[in-house]
Write a structure and sequence with these properties.
By secondary structure, the chain is of the alpha+beta class. The protein contains 13 helices and 19 strands. An eight-stranded antiparallel β-sheet has the order 13-12-9-6-5-17-18-19. The protein has a five-stranded antiparallel β-sheet with strand order 7-8-14-15-16, with helices on one face. A four-stranded parallel β-sheet has the order 2-1-3-4, sandwiched between helices. Helix 1 crosses helix 2. It is globular, with a radius of gyration of 20 Å. The model has no long low-confidence stretch (mean pLDDT about 95).
Length: about 375
């Protein structure tokens, strides 16, 4: 039996997020537990006259190769990633049967797998940055992801679909409304040279001179709700402590604290000393992973619960996030890396952001009084 919410999601992804047209090569990817998602998106894409390709990940197979294979066997590029990055449109879904599948894999093996996929990631980054690749990633609700979020599957499905406005009669109209509200802040930050970010155990200066702020409203992530840029690579200094757990490959690192000089991470620590070695294995993926590829402000105030899922958590209204590693060409980013790892900080208590010395964001809220009069009226 088809889920009407999933069909509505597929329709929005195809017709709004990626604007599929006749003749587009559309790659659809997800894990094997998300086959209903692949089918729903394929139906919507075929209606548009697209040429559909689909790629199914089987995590158990990847884990088997990584655990027991030789270096020759596991340190190979991900052919699915490469094929999807070469398409006109790539629509993907996260959603796992087991969110801890890779937790016991040795750090060095995971690192070598990331490095082996570097060229595919560069192809993806280059083509997305130039506009050749239209990409959107979303969430397919599973029992494992629901459990990870501390919800029943029914509760999690409701959370996922509500975050995308899919219970609305016209979800696209809601996303366009969000786009309009966020655009004034993207315009405000364009042309600014430096951010000063203050919060609990955080005092960080971020050079954003010459970089473009991107308004995210459902075209590359779904659900969405953030404005972001790629900072000047050698223009960050100070310290930042991320209040939410930093999560990657099923590993959770609490209270990650980074010290930065001339853009480069010079010291990294987390709450649990036993996690320190593994944390450094990610930060030391390559030279680019010691630098930042993104600084962003979460703007989706409909998302307030931390669910251990970066798709939703980085959008939490009243938060900021920064990512180590790969930057965004569309924002002017130049940093290259085999990793892009987002880490999130709550700004609702003691949080302030200054742009060129002007306070424009405090305790998780934008201060509209700093905007020109005409834009202040755009509520």
């Amino acid at each position: 039996m088809r889920d009407d919410r999933l069909e509505k999601l597929a329709d929005v992804l195809v017709n709004y997020s990626t604007e599929v047209t006749e003749g587009d090569i559309v790659a659809i990817s997800a894990e094997d537990c998300a086959l209903p998602f692949i089918q729903a998106v394929a139906r919507a894409a075929v209606k548009k006259g697209a040429l559909v390709e689909y790629y199914v990940d089987v995590p158990e197979v990847d884990a088997e190769v990584l655990k027991h294979g030789s270096r020759e066997q596991y340190a190979r590029p991900n052919i699915r990633f490469g094929a999807c990055a070469a398409s006109d449109v790539w629509i993907s879904a996260w959603g796992s049967r087991n969110t801890k599948m890779m937790q016991s894999i040795p750090s060095e093996r995971l690192k070598e797998r990331r490095l082996a996929n570097r060229e595919n990631r560069k192809k993806y980054s280059d083509r997305m940055g130039s506009g050749e690749l239209r990409w959107c990633g979303t969430q397919f609700p599973t029992e494992a992801d629901a459990q990870n979020a501390g919800m029943s599957l029914e509760e999690y499905e409701d959370f996922v679909y509500r975050a995308g406005f899919l219970y609305e009669a016209d979800p696209v109209a809601k996303w366009k409304e969000m786009e309009k509200k966020q655009e004034k802040w993207a315009r405000y930050l364009d042309g600014k040279k430096e951010l000063h970010i203050l919060s609990k155990d955080t005092d960080l200066y971020v050079n954003v001179a010459g970089r473009k702020w991107i308004n995210c409203c459902g075209h590359e992530n779904f659900p969405d709700g953030e404005i972001f840029t790629s900072p000047v690579e050698d223009g960050i200094y100070g310290t930042i402590t991320f209040s939410y757990p930093a999560i990657i490959n099923g590993h959770e690192f609490e209270e990650v604290r980074l010290t930065v000089e001339n853009g480069r991470i010079t010291h990294a620590a987390c709450k649990n000393p036993e996690d320190q070695e593994r944390l450094l294995s990610y930060i030391d993926t390559d030279e680019g992973s010691r630098y930042f590829g993104e600084v962003a402000i979460g703007t989706n105030y409909g998302i307030q619960k931390h669910t251990k899922n970066i798709l939703f958590d980085e959008k939490i209204g009243g938060s900021i996030h920064m990512a180590i590693g790969e930057g965004f060409q569309e924002a002017g980013g130049k940093n290259t890396s085999a990793i892009h790892w987002d880490m999130i900080n709550d700004m609702t208590q003691m949080g302030k952001i200054y742009a060129d010395g002007e306070l424009f964001y405090e305790n998780g809220q934008f201060l509209t009084e700093v905007l020109p009069g005409e834009e202040r009226m755009m509520r």
